[in-house]
Amino acid sequence: MATLTLTWQRLHLGRWGLLFVVLLLVAVPLPQFFAPERNLVTDSLLFSLTQMFILITLASNWNLTGGLTGYVDFGHAVFFGVGAYGTGILMGQPGWEPWPEALTLWSFWPAMLVGGIVAAVFAVLLGSATLRLKGPYFSIAMLGTFVAMRELVRVVRPLTGGGLGMTLPPYLNRPLFYYLTLTLAGLVVALMWWIRRTEFGSTLIAIREDEVGAEMRGINTTLHKITAFWIAAFLSGLVGGIWAYQNAYIDPDVVFLPNRTVDMVMMTMLGGLGTVAGPVIGAATIYWLRDVVWSNLLLFHQIAEGILLIIIVLGAPEGIMGVLGDRSATSLPRLWRKWFPSTSSESEQPA
Amino acid sequence: MKRGIKVFTIMALLALVFSLLPGQTLAQEVTCDSEVVVQADDWLSKIAEKFYGDVLAFPAIAQATNAVAADDESYTTIENVDLIEVGWKLCVPSTADAEAMLNRSIGAAMAEVEFDGIIRIGAAVSETGSLAQAGEDTREGYDLWVDFVNHEYGGIQVGDQRYGVEIIYYDDESDADTAANLVERLISEDQVQFMFGPYSSGLTMSTSAVAEQHNIIFIEGNGSSETLFERGFQNLFATLTPASFYTRSAMDLFAASGVQTVAIAYEDEPFSASVLAGTQIWAEELGMEVLAVETYPRGATVAEIDPIVTKLKALNADVFVGGGHLNDGIAFVRSAKSLEYCPQAMVLTAGPNFPEFAEELGADAENVLGPTQWEATMGWVGAYLGTPGEYDRRYQAMFNSVPTYQSAESTAVGLALHAAIEAAGSMETDAVRQALRDLDIVTFYGPINFDDTGKNVAKPMASGQIQDGVFTVVAPSDAAVADFKFEPLSWCDG
Amino acid sequence: MNLSDLILQAVINGILIGGFYAVMMLGFSVIWGVMGVINLAHGEFLMVGAYLTWVLNRQYGIDPFIALIVVLPAMFLLGYIFQRILINRIIERPFLIALLVTYGLSVAMASTVKLIYKADPRVTDTALTGFWNLSDGVGIPATKFYILIAALIMMAGLYLFLQYTRLGKSIRAAAQNKEAARMVGIEIGQVYAITFAICIALTGAAGALISPTTSIFPFMGPVLTLKAFAITAMAGLGNIPGALMGGIILGLVENLIATLVPGVGSNLGITSSFILLVVVLVTRPQGLFGGLKPAEAR
Fold first, then answer.
1. Which residue of A93, B162, B485, C47 is surrounded by the most CB atoms within 10 Å?
2. CA gap B228, B208 in Å, rounded
3. How many CB pairs under 8 A join A and B?
4. Distance from CA of A146 to the nearest CA of C (A)
């Protein structure tokens, strides 16, 4: 027991780490209580939780570039989409003649992995161009990429099925997807936590706070930025593949859904930009809100969500974690000052 | 930091308040107007009958009982509303509370009919989001059938017993993920016996997959895209004419009028793609040449449509067949007029059959053709609901609006299940599935006869034309009310 | 019609819609340039203007072009109110906040309009219709030509306002350097309010102009907002002549690709406009033509 406590303290896991482990201990054996007749843990609950884990993973990924490195990516869902389509194409049989036989009818696991890799490669190529932009320009460039990719997928009809979409072999195994997404979510959160504690993480934060200064100190900012970028892209690509398989159908509009990026941003902001627990809390909160609260507001829930977003952003920009005193939450005014030094004024909120 | 805490506290309180609002998915504070101990030969709907005079009010009793059972062990938690046991204590809420729970008024039902049970059906439809309009039509179509069965027909006949029907609805928000999730919930938690489909091929795609995986029969009337039926599903049945047949009767008209070339443009999404793929097949069959096939993105505006119209104008095909949804249908007409594109005839796949088309476009809409699944002027005569005219009157009395074909095909969904259960004499999935396969009936909506993949191959797709501002059925001949007018569009010279 | 005719018609279409694009995005661009706010609800304001025009058209039979007389001041007022209630709170805050707040606003606006008017598409009627044949099927669509004229007039008006009136100069001063502007006695709060109101009025007017040519529905906003982004990137913040050039470039690119590529042309047209956006941002983020703000050093 003493060794456990000692290790705990040495790893700086703290109270959030404890919560995390407790949640894992609850979540992992959950499907064992699977008993639809007793209305306890049903397929539906597993499905709901799976979707929540997917949101948590995506929000955390986004946080890596957005919160930690300070590059607010408004088109991150493009990597989700690339992963989804990568997986879909490899698992299916595109009607395009030049497509090699060897790249068709794969099984799920390799397809998902390659989908993620393709997303990562795409991120490296894209990032080398767009990561040179700063602030809102980067955000818009990524948004443009997202829209362009959606239409591009539609255009490349022989390969992707165009607007008609592609079906994937259907496979119902809710517990499997549950564990898969739970594992991925757990890994991603652990990864974020670990990155924060390494030099890589500190460098990313340094880039966020003062990129020019970091460069002058000899840090290869480009390498670091692109690394964070492709890691996030790879993981989101994996999620895309999983989602595609579970949904058994993909088309450009259902995959490249603008709301996905907005969700990621909103959840991370709610939870706390740049923190480890932030995206998790934000994702869980918004998911709960949607499932439980909105269902009673049927006609008005979209309006309510829009207004809620406004309230969160204006009232508590540091997010929940910031409110709870997490010092690692980034300060948006600091981000702002870095990009537009000439326009800062006394009306800003202190960190 | 302080302000942040204040904001969050307020929001948390608000959320708490909202979650306590009466709603069908959450428990609430309940007081029992009466307590009942279950006797021999009791069942929930009988008790509901006794207290409210409404057999269909039993879910309120179940809900109330379960709510108080959480705190008070003398009450039993009801897990299966069809199975209650002697000696159980039930909580009967006041009529007002029950009405709040059920979201409708009680006692409206005819108290004379006592059902031997209730068939539970689930449906996720779009109450909100981009498909809300058609989603509402869909739900009204389903509701009309429910009302008919419960209040007029006296319950579906299963052997010598009669069953009422109940549909549990959720709002899928026009979103595929939400729809799939809700269907999952309907099947796993609400334990429905059958599923009715949502509106649109896209949503039907994912929801039918969930039902198939749980081996629940899924009948729909609003998803016609061919890809739905290419997945080898056993439990999917669709009452509407499949997408590829949409333009058949119009193409027949053209062939008969000597048309030789066709230009095609459509919105790049599954439904329209299916329709226009079919068009190309008919063109080939009828010996017409397709000069171009153009696509445009979803949500296209004049900026995307003008280039297409320009291209088509250059090609000068005899007729134009195309479209996607009402939005681009209207945009097409405007664009064609502004660029003076004058094909001899124009078919828009989703447009002319909607009253808004003629309303908004006025004189511009004249002579435009469009397919329709059903119109109130057609001549079918069905066993349950009579003729389209009678359906129209019934619908208007119930909902105070004119039925669209979305409503009609949804009611047909109910009728298909209805007929199948009665033919099978059972509610077992396998028996009903076989009965659906063997079904061959005519309804107010048209003939229903499913093939092995679940498509209704017996029902022809009609074509209508805007004549004097009114959408008039002109083909096929046994459904036509007037002749096809092969005349120029309103902005073109003769 | 042969190939050169096709190209000519595409060019005509491109220029006409380009002019419209310019007036469509100017409001967005000036708000960003002056107030630093990226208004993601831009398309929704345009949509509101379009609906307002539709109501006037259907209920009172007013032609959309004439309806501008009502739409401009009405949208001005709407913009002023929104600025005071909401936008004021997000100026000078980090840009992410503005993005999220205006996104929330866009969702709320679209849903509200849908509740009132339902999702059915609408269109207005104008008397200014027709097609002026130039040769062999190629010609100029009359309505769009008049839209271009109206757009040019409004843009010229805005330009003159900003260049030569006192208020206009105050706005430009505030955009360049807020502190200095304050120091010479310019009341920034009022300047912001007027700026926002003018921009919303312009955007609403664009909605009125487009209403006879395409279908109006509550969710038509986002596509237009994205195009506004693209043109702003090309034009530079708050740059009016740049906006015209940028709008026409976008219009030409879209139309030429869409018209000349068979089959998937229109899809490719939209793709190319966004690829163009990304390329411009990466190579020349201050825009092709400079803007209200001097180029930021990187």
1. C47
2. 9
3. 127
4. 9
Predicted local confidence at residue B25, as pLDDT: 34
CATH number of B245-372+461-475: 3.40.50.2300
Domain pair B30-103 / B245-372+461-475, same fold: no
Task: Give the Cβ contact number of residue A222 at 10 Å.
Answer: 14
Q: Does C259 sit within 8 Å of B307, measured CB to CB?
A: yes
Q: Which run of H or E residues covers position B32?
A: strand B32-37
Q: What is the DSSP letter of B169?
A: E
Does residue B263 surpass a pLDDT of 90?
yes
Taking CA atoms, B378 is separated from A211, B387, B399, in Å, by 72, 8, 21
Q: At what angle do helices B270-286 and B248-256 cross, to 10 degrees?
A: 30
Which H or E element spans position A284?
A: helix A277-288
Overall average pLDDT of the B247-258 stretch? 92
CATH, domain range B120-241+373-459: 3.40.50.2300
Question: Where do the domains of chain B lie?
Answer: 30-103, 120-241+373-459, 245-372+461-475
The domain in which residue C101 lies consists of 3-119+143-219
Decide if C260 is inside a domain. no
Does A215 contact chain C (CB < 8 Å)?
Answer: no
Least confident of B20-34, B223-237, C131-145: B20-34
| Cis upstream peptide for B476 (omega within 30°) | yes
In order of B59, B117, B118, B122, C179, the CA distances from B82 in angstroms are 11, 7, 8, 16, 75
Nearest residue to B413 via CA among B384, B379, B452? B384
What's the Cα-to-Cα distance from A334 to each of A131, A351, C93, rounded to whole Å? 19, 8, 11
**A299 close to B (CB below 8 A):** yes
pLDDT at B419 over 50: yes
Give the span between the Cα atoms of C26 and C203, in whole angstroms: 8
Backbone angles phi, psi at B174, to 5 degrees: 60, 25
Q: At C179, is the secondary structure helix, strand, or coil?
A: helix
The DSSP secondary structure of B234-294, one letter per residue, reads SSEEE-SPPGGGTTHHHHHHHHHTT--EEEEEEESSHHHHHHHHHHHHHHHHHT-EEEEEE
B289: its two tokens: 């040449």
Query: How sure is the predictor about C63, in pLDDT bands with cuts at 50, 70 and 90?
Result: very high
CB-count exposure of residue C69 (10 Å: 0-12, 13-18, 19+): exposed
Average pLDDT of chain A to the nearest whole number: 80
Residue closest to A256 by CA, chosen among C98, C107, C274:
C274
Q: How many C-beta atoms lie closer than 10 Å to residue A111's C-beta? A: 24
Lowest average pLDDT, out of A213-217, B91-95, B124-128, B366-370, goes to B91-95
Domain count, chain C: 1
**DSSP strand pairing (B369-372 vs B89-93):** unpaired
CATH classification for the domain delimited by B30-103, as one of 2.40.30, 3.40.1670, 3.10.350, 3.30.310: 3.10.350
DSSP A291: I
Tokens of A333: 């005014």
Q: Across the interface, which of B176, B181, B273 has its CB nearest the CB of A254?
A: B176
- Are A255 and A80 in contact, with CB atoms under 8 Å apart? yes
State the smallest CA–CA distance between residue B360 and chain C in angstroms. Answer: 6
**C264 is a domain residue:** no
> Could you tell me the end-to-end alpha-carbon distance of chain C, in angstroms, rounded to an integer?
50
CA–CA distance, B114 with B380 (Å, rounded to integer): 32
